[in-house]
Design brief:
mainly alpha; 1361 residues
């Protein structure tokens, strides 16, 4: 806004405002909008004082101009700045005076008239009126591009601007009418009542205002520009508060149904997908997230719940019916919303009476909703019914069975086509509908009529209807009836294989429920009944397949297997191959069940049919695969040493030969994958005997394995491994050495081929390496490991060249070498040069490859040093020669040199510290450390020189990673056993490294902090305290704690404890612990972890001796807990405080303990930290739990006589736990009672933690309450004393718990999680305190307490043996 031509002094601006207000009516040179605009400029610039006369004058003048039916009055009412000024002056006038003025000036009537204006959406110019309305407004700057003329204000955009400012002013006014805690003076309370009475004086005006506000909310969703209007998120809150203030009467429900429900339900239907949205924009998405819960609560509180209360009294639902009748134009939206809210009305599921009342209520509402949908077409009705039943199923508000049967018979079946979606919804809600139907065969007939050409419908019918129908018959203990009807439907089908009843999922589901639904006698009678039904197309095979798959109990199998065998002993006529294949599956089950002699008879019976199928039928046919599976089961039944095992094994080998010759392409492999699963998962069980036939079987399995592994280059590597992995990880293979050798030997042979055609560098070599990596460690015997490493050594030059071109290949080779060397392996011609070669091509660009190389070298050298002998001496001499041969200064230091020397130095250092010296072998053990130090010095010098170049592009990612490798190696030098070995760098080099680190600090923070740690170790005086603090201020919130800890350790290394204390004092004294950089907090915690307690021999406080006073340090940290600005800062401070409470418990004072509990209460209050994030609430609550739990466990004795502080803390935590922070219909002040960080409801896991706090208080451990023996009697139990003490107070926590249940809905899961703690409180609460608790509650609270105590007596109270 522009400043007016007034004095800049605030008092002068105030005087200018007073003069302007006095002359508003006298100045005719300005139009009304210009006068209002001038007022706004002055009122925002003027200094606010205790006096409010000018604001009252402005209020009276504006309301006077707004009253009336002239265009001028309409212009003022529509002008957005008018409502902006009103919102500005409302808080500056005392509530009592404001309420009187608004009532006298009929503010509510003016508001109602304004809303009537803005809901007209007129676009044409208004009729000429007064001079003010016809003059053209002057051009002027505004804070927003608001419309100014009356014509502009009558457009939809102008109306929305007016409504937006009006909503904001109303929200401010309603906040003035809320008596907030801490301000409950008599004047404030009376003023609040005055403001509330504005909207309770006339019920009709309040009703019209609410109806027009909800209309504005709906219209605002269809804005063309899609921009969110100011304060739009809280509009539903505002209108709900206004409706809540109305003058209540018996006609409220009817008024709501007539004027409000239709538009409110339409908005909610749009948000929940029950109504098509034409204008989908950002406004819609933003409002949907916030308004949905607000609208549901609004409709539930003021429409559905009152209707239910009236229904409970006189069984009348006229109001919901009236609402549905009035909204007949949008009956789909209104009916769906009404049912959705009515079905979710609260009820106590543990109380049978409450459940019955809820069922009766929802049944009547559902019938009313169904009746209202009758004018719609059948298709539309069924779509809505399906949605309603889906809601009913989700909310467990199932309509009556008779109602569902009516929907099923009159809507799902009555038509040209069966509505399977509606049938599935009915079935999901209540399967008894179909069991007690007048024509139970109708559903089976309709299922049978499903067309085989519509695959989607068939799939839906099977998954959503048939399977649920099975469950329904099973639950009704009539699974036999379902199977019989299923069998009859198959018999009635023209083609069994094309029938929907042939679907394998029906048989599979029958198998899962068979033995839990039927006894062995029932199954036998079922089989006898099926046998009497005439069938000749294989229908019986379908049923028997499902029954056999479900038989797992040995007793049941013994009773029915002979019956199944007799039913299978028949000639099968002209049956389709798909159905006929099921006989082989049934014979397979019988083979596994029968005794050896019976199995032989079975083989004699089926072999004449089985052999031709396996030898001649196409393998892709279902019958061929089932016959092969049956053959395997027959062979398994004869294994080991059965009479026909040899014949069956030969037949299996013949089939495997056909299978191998049939797989020629990737398509063949996919189509025959069931054979691969069977062969690789099960056939290895048959290869346990050293017979010729078994050897042939093993060869065939290996051939198939090799075919899949090697033959198809276009097959993706992961697909290939997925196929062969079952065989590699098969326990039968790992237990049989011949089989294991047969699998792994061909792969090793393929790699270890002649020199000119080595398998290591062929196109398929990566596939071979991937296969070898799949083999478990049991496969890698000493001989295979030596062969593998020997082959690698022989071809390592070609392998290195190939690996340089393909990083994936290099990774596979290194992973394989590391896996093999995990077990001690000394291969042929093993020498140190192998390690040099493997390092030669490694660069710093790939950290994974570098780490693998380092692991391989470290493992190898440590195995060499395991047993010191002549080979060890020669190996280490070669290492020494390599080390001496490094020419420093002539060529740049390489990554391979550093990695190799680092591994050597680390291994030798570990050996010297554990086993002794190597000097007896003629080897200088320090040569590796000295040379490594020199190489590192050269590497740092080269990096420093490179960093001095003007272009920062020279410091590439590779060079930074190389620097990281050098820094890691420098740490090995620092840990070296001989402290004489040091890295010596010049001052210029150190300065250049420091500058380089500062210049690239944004690229890789971890490397830079390692560099700074190294620089400090080189020169402990390099950083002053100020520069040290400056560096810590650069830490981002995502920095790793280990990086900072290494820097702190290096900085304080060699410093005395007093110097460390000074550093800590400066860090915490800077006042930067609550926000900004996380570095000072991390540094302070690390210094406290490194703190060494000085023995206190003279019992003087640490502060008087000049030492660190941990109590004051703790006080400083805990005072900042509630003022943190981010979640990392909060967690870090809480961890630091927790560390001091635990590790330095003796240094804590009584004040520290009380301050901690007080801080927890502050964090849980509305003044808590303003931290936002998806996981912030859960992590903050967890941190608070840890603090309170530790105080109860470690510092319980300090709570004696101060238990009221802990009680306040527990009640604050409980309030946060059960508070719902979602936007509701409450006012702003009510919403602000919960802490700012609580953006979502806490979960039952948090309730379990709070219950743990209650049990810690009520069931203390002996250690937490133990005192010295002199302080108590030997006959007195300390735990009993503690329980009696807390029992006098803990009932107050129960009181809070009960009141919170009355204020808002508490989920059953939350109550269940809190039960343990609540019952623990009741255990220690004496009868007198329970009576006090009962008397302190109102009738509703006593009812809740009565139910809670009944649960406790039933489940929670221990009664003894």
């Amino acid at each position: 806004m522009e400043a007016m031509d007034v004095d800049g002094n605030g008092s002068s601006q105030r005087l200018a405002l007073i003069r302007t207000v006095r002359t508003l009516d006298e100045d005719s040179s300005l139009t009304l909008p210009d006068k209002i605009h001038k007022l706004w400029l002055l009122i925002t610039a003027a200094k606010h004082t205790r006096l409010h006369g000018v604001e009252e004058s402005i209020l009276r003048w504006l309301l006077k101009q707004m009253s009336g039916n002239t265009d001028s009055a309409e212009h003022v009412r529509r002008f957005p700045l008018t409502w902006t000024i009103l919102g500005h002056v409302f808080p500056k006038i005392p509530a009592q005076a404001l309420g009187r003025s608004l009532a006298y000036l009929r503010f509510v009537s003016i508001l109602n008239k304004t809303l009537g204006d803005v809901t007209k959406h007129e676009t044409q110019a208004s009729a000429p009126g007064t001079e003010d309305s016809t003059k053209t407004s002057k051009k002027r700057k505004r804070g927003a591009n608001w419309p100014a003329t009356l014509d502009e204000l009558r457009t939809s955009t102008g109306c929305l601007r007016t409504a937006s400012e009006g909503f904001e002013a109303l929200a401010i006014l309603l906040e003035q009418g809320t008596a907030q805690s801490g301000e409950l003076t008599p004047e404030r309370r009376v003023g609040a009542e005055h403001i509330k009475s504005l909207f309770s004086s006339s019920g009709e005006e309040t009703r019209d205002i609410t109806a027009r506000l909800i209309l504005i909310c709906d219209d605002s969703l269809s804005l063309a520009d899609g921009e969110l209007v100011k304060g739009q998120q809280s509009w539903i809150d505002t209108l709900a508060t206004i409706w809540d203030l109305r003058l209540r009467n018996k006609e409220d429900g009817l008024d709501f149904a007539k004027y409000i429900y239709g538009r409110a339900s339409l908005i909610l239907a749009k948000f929940e997908g029950y109504y098509s949205v034409i204008h989908y924009n950002r406004i819609y998405e933003t409002c949907r997230e916030i308004w949905t819960l607000q609208l549901r609560k609004f409709l539930s509180t003021y429409f559905v719940l009152p209707a239910r209360q009236r229904f409970s009294a006189d069984k009348n639902i006229d109001v919901p019916k009236l609402a549905l009748e009035i909204t007949q134009d949008d009956v789909v939206a209104s009916a769906t919303v009404m049912w959705s809210i009515a079905a979710t009305t609260p009820r106590d599921t543990s109380d049978p009476r409450s459940k019955i009342e809820h069922d009766v209520w929802t049944e009547n509402i559902f019938q009313a909703v169904v009746e209202s949908l009758q004018p719609l077409s059948r298709q539309k009705q069924n779509e809505v019914f399906s949605r309603l039943l889906d809601i009913a199923f989700q909310t467990r508000s199932i309509p009556d069975t008779e109602t569902l049967r009516t929907l099923y018979q009159q809507h799902a079946l009555d038509g040209a086509e069966t509505d399977w979606i509606l049938i599935s919804k009915v079935l999901a809600c209540d399967p008894d509908v179909f069991l007690a139907a007048q024509d139970p065969e109708a559903i089976f007939n309709n299922i049978s009529n499903v067309s085989d050409s519509d695959a989607k419908t068939r799939d839906e019918v099977v998954s959503n209807v048939v399977l649920h129908l099975q469950d329904a018959f099973s639950n009704a203990r009539d699974l036999v009836g379902f199977v019989t009807k299923w069998f009859q439907s198959l018999c009635a089908a023209e083609s069994v294989e094309q029938s929907v009843w042939f679907d394998s999922r029906i048989r599979e589901h029958l198998a899962t429920i068979l033995q839990t639904s039927l006894s062995s006698t029932q199954i036998l009678r079922l089989l006898e009944g099926l046998e009497t039904i005439n069938n000749d197309s294989g229908e019986l095979l379908v049923i028997l397949d499902g029954i056999c798959a479900g038989l797992t109990d040995e007793h049941t199998i013994a009773n029915v297997h002979l019956k199944i065998m007799s039913m299978m002993d028949r000639k099968w006529g002209d049956i389709s191959p798909g159905v006929l294949a099921l006989r082989w599956r049934i014979f397979g089950y019988l083979a596994l069940w029968e005794e050896s002699s019976d199995c032989n008879q079975l083989w004699k019976k089926v072999k004449s049919d089985l052999k031709p199928i396996l030898k001649k039928s196409p393998l892709i046919a279902a019958e061929a695969f089932e016959a092969f599976s049956c053959c395997y089961k027959l062979c398994l039944a004869n294994h080991i040493g059965g009479k026909y095992e040899e014949d069956l094994t030969k037949l299996i080998c013949t089939t495997l030969g056909r299978l191998i010759s049939s797989i020629n392409t990737e398509a063949d492999l996919q189509s025959l994958s069931p054979y691969l699963d069977l062969v690789f998962n099960h056939l290895p069980r048959l290869s346990e005997q050293p017979k010729q036939e078994v050897n042939t079987l093993t060869d065939q399995i290996v051939k198939l394995f090799w075919l899949v592994s090697y033959k198809f280059p276009l097959l993706l590597n992961e697909q290939r491994l997925e196929l062969i992995r079952p065989l590699i990880h098969n326990y039968d293979v790992a237990d049989e050495e011949p089989m294991a050798d047969a699998l792994i030997a061909p792969v090793l042979d393929a790699l270890d081929s002649p020199e000119d055609q080595t398998g290591w560098t062929q196109p398929h070599s990566l596939n071979l390496l991937s296969i070898l990596l799949e083999f478990p460690v049991e496969f890698w015997t000493r001989g295979r490991r030596k062969r593998m490493l020997g082959s690698w050594k022989k071809h390592k030059s070609m392998i290195s060249s190939y690996a340089a071109k393909d990083p994936k290949y290099a990774l596979a080779v290194l992973r394989l070498l590391v896996n093999i060397m995990q077990q001690p392996t000394f291969y042929e011609d093993m020498e140190f040069a192998d390690l040099v070669d493997i390092c030669s091509d490694i660069t710093a660009s790939d950290a994974t490859l570098s780490n693998l190389v380092e692991r391989f070298i470290g493992i190898t050298i440590r195995q060499i040093l395991t047993n010191v002998n002549e080979f060890t001496q020669s190996y280490l001499l070669s290492a020494s020669q390599y080390t001496r041969g490094i020419k420093l200064g002539k060529i740049p230091a390489t990554c391979s040199q550093i990695i190799l020397l680092k591994s050597l130095a680390a291994a030798i250092s570990d050996y010297k510290s554990s086993s002794g010296s190597l000097e007896s072998l003629g080897i200088d053990p320090n040569i590796f450390g000295r040379t490594l130090a020199k190489v590192i010095e050269q590497a740092f010098g080269e990096f420093a020189s490179e960093a001095q170049k003007p272009s920062m592009s020279s410091l590439t990612e590779d060079k930074l990673k190389f620097l990281s490798i050098a820094l890691d190696a420098a740490q090995v030098i620092g840990n070296y056993a001989t402290s004489q070995i040091k890295i010596e760098l010049s001052g210029d080099t150190l300065t250049q490294l420091e500058r380089a680190g500062d210049s690239v600090s944004t690229k890789d923070a971890a490397i830079i902090w390692k560099l700074r740690s190294f620089l400090i170790k080189q020169n402990t005086n390099r950083y002053t305290t100020e520069s040290f603090s400056t560096l810590l201020d650069e830490c981002d919130l995502g920095i790793e704690e280990e990086s900072i800890n290494g820097f702190i350790d290096a900085y304080v290394q060699g410093k005395s404890q007093s110097e460390r204390d000074e550093v800590l004092g400066e860090l915490i004294g800077q006042g930067r612990l609550t926000g900004g950089s996380i570095g000072p907090l991390l540094a302070a915690q690390r210094l406290l972890e490194l703190y060494q307690v000085v023995p206190n021999v003279d019992d003087k406080p640490a502060s008087t001796k000049g030492g660190l006073d941990l109590a004051k340090v703790y006080e400083h940290f805990i005072s900042h807990l509630s003022r943190t600005e981010s979640l990392p800062h909060f967690k870090q401070i809480s961890e630091t405080v927790l560390f001091l409470l635990d590790k330095h418990a003796n240094a804590m004072t009584q004040y520290n303990i009380e301050a901690t509990l007080t801080s927890v209460v502050e964090v849980c209050s509305a003044q808590g930290p303003k931290i936002h994030g998806p996981k912030a609430a859960g992590e903050i609550f967890a941190a608070l739990f840890k603090l309170v739990a530790l105080i109860i466990k470690r510092h319980r004795l300090r709570l004696s006589g101060h238990f009221h502080i802990l009680l306040t803390t527990l009640r604050a935590l409980l309030t946060v736990l059960l508070t719902d922070p979602a936007p509701s219909i409450s006012s702003r002040s009510a919403r602000s009672r919960h802490p700012p960080w609580l953006l979502a409801r806490l979960q039952p896991r948090h309730a379990e933690r709070f219950a743990r706090l209650l049990t810690l208080v009520c069931e203390p451990s002996a250690a937490s309450v133990a005192r010295s023996r002199a302080a108590r009697s030997d006959l007195d139990s300390a735990t009993d004393v503690a329980k009696r003490a807390v029992g006098q107070y803990m009932y107050l926590v129960l009181e809070t718990y009960i009141k919170l249940q009355l204020e808002g809905e508490v989920a059953r899961d939350m109550r269940k999680a809190l039960e343990v703690g609540v019952f623990s409180v009741l255990d220690i609460t004496p009868e007198g305190c329970r009576k006090v608790l009962n008397e302190s509650l109102d009738a509703s609270g006593r009812a809740v307490f009565r139910a809670l105590f009944a649960e406790y007596r039933k489940f929670g109270k221990w009664k003894g043996v």
